[in-house]
What we know:
With about 120 residues, this protein is mainly beta. It is about 0% helix and about 55% strand. The protein is elongated and about 50 Å long.
Amino acid sequence: QVQLVESGGGLVQPGGSLRLSCAASGSIGSINVLGWYRQAPGKQREFVATITSDGKTNYPDSVKGRFTISRDNAKNTVALQMNVLMPEDTAVYYCNALITNWPKKPTAYWGQGTQVTVSS
Length: 120
């Protein structure tokens, strides 16, 4: 079993910053990709950021330049630094990990989610 535990959500004013963290534990063979997704009320879950095992990152245009994803391979953790937050960033943020436990195929795991609210 693999567990992903997020932390760091909360309420912040527009223009402010938050840092989310996620720690993976359990039966972890190799973490291929770590990422963050979010889901606002009434909307589908959407991609926010991903980072590969060799540090390549990817962001949608909506957060590029404001959000930064990073990972610590030794600690099996991933973080999301969010700056210049806007009300439209309000959502539940989910940590995601694509993990390979050979000989099984890579499997995606999700955290329980952490609420981020941007409001004055």
